[in-house]
Amino acid sequence: MTASSDQPHPKTFTAAPALSGSITVPGDKSISHRSLMLSALAVGESRVEGLLEGEDVLATAAAMRAMGAEIRRDEGGIWHIHGVGVGGLLQPQSALDMGNSGTSTRLLMGLVASHAITATFVGDASLSKRPMARVTEPLSRMGASFTTSPGDRLPLTMRGVCPAVPLDYRLPVASAQVKSAILLAGLNAPGITRIVEPIPTRDHSERMLKGFGADLDIEVEADGTRIITLRGEAELRPQSITVPGDPSSAAFPMVAALLVPASKVTIANVGLNATRAGLVDLLREMGGDIAIENPREVGGEPVGDLVITASALKGIEPDPANAPSMIDEYPVAFIAAAFAAGRSVFRGLEELRVKESDRIATMATGLRAIGVTVEELEDGIVIEGSGGALLTGGGPIATKLDHRIAMSFAIAGLVSKNGVTIDDMRPVATSFPGFTALLESLGAMA
Ligand SMILES: O=C(O)C1=C[C@@H](OP(=O)(O)O)[C@@H](O)[C@H](O)C1
Ligand SMILES: C=C(OP(=O)(O)O)C(=O)O
């Protein structure tokens, strides 16, 4: 899925004059996946506006079609989904190709778990290295069974079961993918599925399940632990969904506008759900001037327009407790730290080692290659900032099939003496089609 052609697409990003303009970013990836999955389980036609048309989401669409949903995009870019009803998924006739997408894989495994169907999941070289035990373990307790590649990895074949056993589960890892997989499995299990979430993670599944009419409750204990209960054998009602702009994509122009001197950029219609907006808080704490205008609600999610003015940043030692609220934004936060004044110490980030690449190691190697002094830690990284002096630059940076590594180093190129060369820009199409053109529209030199 990831390869839009057989050959790598290297690209060099060079020092930019002040960035300016007003842009929007493509739709939220997490919300897009969920809108296709839940629409496919509702009875009747749902419509989705602003769906992210990136390769990861298209992998989810293809899988839902293979399991019986009717999905089409009209000429105006609205997606129409005819669902099969909870419990109505069909046996796919061939392996489900998940491409580069961990979210598609883990959430769809949840869906399959409580249907009496067998499905094989395959993915690209990056996805085939990622751990799946975190979902096979709880889904096995619900009655599903698995044949996996060594280390609980893809390719894997799973046999779902109906009726599945509803689960009462305390999440051992702060993962919205694991939480969502169990909730989606619980939709077609008789009785109550209960999840205890000690560290809150993105709550799009809970919000959207409620929006589709599922019987879902959330209790928050004094220490912040969330207890989510879902009544199974739900009937979902079709919805009209508007997907907000993806804060994880907005992160790149946001950091670019802070770093490139004299920039002023507006990013309109960005999702600002508190379980996702940690980067805005972190950058503000570093001294970044980010204003939120027109705060509003779109499709059950908080949204706003971000106005970003170039700022001198200072190093930071962020609280690891906030990690889930910006988990995919760390690579570009490391670029901000490399340009800030003083040292930054990031800890508590072991989850970064099991993303599309080992994001601690890939970032450490890439940062060194462009002249930044870093120390790699087991669970994080120490970065010595340049205090606003241009980074040396260089490359080619090995992106390891990881879109966020490619985009992070593209932003580093905009504040470098010699430019930064990315070895392969193709993975960017998984989450942010039009990334380079959008940066260029702000005045960036790519
Ligand atoms: O649920 C989701 O949509 C996601 C959850 C996060 O993964 P984990 O659940 O593994 O933390 C995140 O990194 C991923 O990009 C999207
Ligand atoms: C980790 C990511 O996605 P996924 O887990 O869906 O591959 C990401 O988009 O940064």
TrEMBL record:
Pathway: Metabolic intermediate biosynthesis; chorismate biosynthesis; chorismate from D-erythrose 4-phosphate and phosphoenolpyruvate: step 6/7. GO terms for biological process: amino acid biosynthetic process; aromatic amino acid family biosynthetic process; chorismate biosynthetic process. CDD domains: EPSP_synthase. The keyword Signal does not apply. It comes from the Bacteria. Keywords: Amino-acid biosynthesis, Aromatic amino acid biosynthesis, Cytoplasm, Transferase. It catalyses: 3-phosphoshikimate + phosphoenolpyruvate = 5-O-(1-carboxyvinyl)-3-phosphoshikimate + phosphate. The active site is at 328 (proton acceptor). It is found in: Cytoplasm. Its EC number is 2.5.1.19. InterPro entries: Enolpyruvate_Tfrase_dom, Enolpyruvate_Tfrase_sf, EPSP_synthase, EPSP_synthase_CS, RNA3'P_cycl/enolpyr_Trfase_a/b. Catalyzes the transfer of the enolpyruvyl moiety of phosphoenolpyruvate (PEP) to the 5-hydroxyl of shikimate-3-phosphate (S3P) to produce enolpyruvyl shikimate-3-phosphate and inorganic phosphate. This is 3-phosphoshikimate 1-carboxyvinyltransferase. It comes from Sphingobium chungbukense. The lineage of its organism: Bacteria, Pseudomonadati, Pseudomonadota, Alphaproteobacteria, Sphingomonadales.
